[in-house]
Amino acid sequence: MSETKLKRYLKRLHQDLNILREREAKFGGNAPLELLNQIDDHQTAITLVESRLAGDLSDEQLFEQLDTLNINHNYYRANIIPIPTLPLIALSLSMLGLLSFISYRLVVPTPTPTPTPVPTPSQMSGDFNIAIAEIGQQGPDDSPVSSPDGQQLGRWIFSELQNEIKNLPQQFEVQVWHDGPELAAKNVKLGLVADDEAAAELAQRVKANLVIYGALEGGQNPASFVPKFYIKPLQGEAGELDELKGPFQLGAPIPVPIPLDTTDPVLIASLKPEVSLRARALRWFTMGFIWDLAGQTLKALDTFQQAEQALKDWGEKNQGKEILYYFIGREILFLSRDEQQALKVFDSVETARATAETYFKKALNSNPEYARAYIGLGSVYYQQSPQPLEARLATADLALTQYDKALEYAPKLPGEELIRLEAHFGKAVASFLKGDTLYKLGYNQGGNPSMYIEAGGYFEGTIREIETILEPLAATQQHRSLGHAYLALGGAYAQLALVREKQGRQAEATPLYQKAEDAYTSCIAQGDAAGGGNPYDALLKNIIDTYCRPYADRIADKLLVPKEEP
Fold first, then answer.
1. Is 127 in a helix, a strand, or coil?
2. CA triple 481-483-484, angle to 5 deg
3. DSSP SS3 for 139
4. Sign of CA dihedral 63, 246, 192, 289
5. pLDDT digits (tens, 9 = 90+) for 488-525
6. What does the domain layout of the chain look like in residue ranges?
7. Residue 111 in contact with residue 104, Cβ under 8 Å?
8. Tell me: the pLDDT tens digits for 259-270?
């Protein structure tokens, strides 16, 4: 890449990093993990590009390392297709108005001439990439197998989605791939996808942001087809906790006559409403995901709310509409964390949170077992914690109830493991909130012993929840999330030790302080575990230097010279 383009790209990265840091400052040290991940990856990208400009890296080394990051731009086209920085769009703006701001360009893969008989497998290179896997038929062991009916259905879904994507407002390049001659010429075969793990692998292999998959199920006629889609992490490091990533099931099964003849106008007329509705929904989701990917929360929210108006024919029950309501609630919740941004849409942050709560409840009205919506509700209630202490107790209880519901219903969703981890972590911080509130109430009441007893129980609850997620996070080397988990674990042990001191149980307090020190030390260790002391991981460095290291030192000093807390 030329020096001019690299400098242009570096300027873009600095601009975006400044915007992200402004957002982080609004949280006063409590910024969400996904935002910190995004800041870290932008800092890493800046360091890498500067190293390339200094001659310390080759183009190949630069691109190889940039490929591991999830940042807002495709660096190959950073100077050709900029991320739009348009004026904020009011909620009442129609789709027609949005079209007037943005142009559209759909790219369908075409065969690339190559001098070699077997070309190197290609990867997708759009600003947003959609891979439609081969639709199979459920085999004897429940794994999908190839079938002519499934292949016909897949081609039809591809065609329907292409038609819908032509309606996307676009200054982005959207690529849609499906198996066929064009991909064969690129030595690419998407193939069958059995589950969310296979969808994640396919997304990684071809660099797709969205994978659509599914299989014809059941031995009867008609067969059942449930469209599913998988979202690759849009922000932060792949593999880290991110509530937008993972698999989603798009509605109730669609009955599909076997054999399927997509040239039969009567048959297609009977299927088209169901298939077209989901294609329309995916078109709207795609646009919302693009804005979310670009860090444009207001535009993502506007898009999803326009989808709500445009998809009024989408059934409220058992049709997958809970996903749309969840996405709307999620964007509003994220917006509510930044008062300046929230006031551009709502009259107060409280109104924004109440609206997010309403949409998560609408999601649960559509599907009472939708675990993601319970996690969203838990986050709403947790964010209400800056309240008088008595009110905070009720808020903490509400949050805990939602996370328990999420854990109850997580097995009913694809991507159960990810949802479970999020719910356990949410329950951990809600338990800490309850324990901290009870401790402060007890202290204010002159050392109320019953309050201290109850507070200790909730700090123990935090410890149990965090210990539940440590092993799966370590097994998948999610070092950033582990840093946060060990930080929370250390805080819970330290607070529990403080409670024991107030109860006059010093013999129990000392080993708890030692466990707190161990947890902070484990947090510090994640810096080296993340990549041999990778100097580019600014997020871990921030967690370690700002919190874990000084807290570990403070606990170590306390263990050397025990003293009463003020």
1. coil
2. 65
3. coil
4. negative
5. 999 999 999 999 999 999 999 999 999 999 999 999 99
6. 1-80
7. no
8. 787 777 777 777
